Amino acid sequence: MRRLNQLGILALTLAMLWSCQENETQRPELEEVPKEVLEKVAALGFNADEVKMYNGNLFIEGDIKISLDQLERMSPSDGLPVEEHYHTDNLVTGTPRTINVFVNMPQKYKDATDIAIDRYNDESLNLTFNRVSSSGQADITIKASPWYYYWFGILGSAGFPENGDPYGTILMTRGYYDNVSNINGLATTIAHEMGHCIGFRHTDYMDRSYSCGGAPDNEGDGGVGANHIPGTPTGPSANSWMLACGSPEGDRPFTNDDKTALGYVY
Fold first, then answer.
1. What DSSP assignment string belongs to 231-256?
2. What are 28-69's pLDDT values in tens digits?
3. pTM here?
4. Alpha-helix runs per DSSP H in the chain
5. Contact, 251 vs 182, CB < 8 A?
6. Contact 143, 172 (CB under 8 A)
7. Which of 66, 81, 101, 122 has a C-alpha 20 to 30 A away from that of 158?
């Protein structure tokens, strides 16, 4: 969900070396993204400068996964969700409802998911999250990402709701996150990806340099109808759980502005 700081780059490099030693699979090649795909990505409100494509899937803004088939079905009038202090219509519907989460990963990730779930449930939303022990019960499954994520620099990914249901898969790169020592920091990462699954964009979408550094970088809303949520900032929100970048060791429980946004939308 984040760009790498220097420690992150070191950890990812070590993970890549480990991956090469453990399996000698040839490094996959990213595919060239056609101009018309980039144009549609931009029109939908995403940053078209950070798009990677592999095996029919687009990886956008570091952690958002959209298949080419999904992209084809999307249009600005669909109400693609913008960041959490704004809302549109592409959210989880049929509320109140329970969203079951299955974690197909070691206990550390289950414990972090429990913390993330508690954070959401403590807000008394019209969405209740529940960790289940069977994949057949799951609305969202959290599992290890494919090995090639090492090569692409993608640490985790999720998508946005479709047809009123949450996005069904969160992928985590174990070679990186196994090294995270702060369980609350890992919980923040998982809560962030869960946020994407229920329709939230990055808090600092209007200028990702706020959390990522570098030059000003506006993801834009692509004319999809960003509706400001009363009582929340119109600019970047400090310490929000949905900031585009941050250390995976850093714990960012919901801020007051996050809570306002969650309560308004759900």
1. TS-SS--TT-TT-S---TT---PPPH
2. 889 999 999 998 888 777 778 779 999 999 998 888 899 999
3. 0.81
4. 6-22, 35-43, 68-73, 107-121, 149-152, 174-177, 183-197, 209-212, 256-265
5. yes
6. yes
7. 122
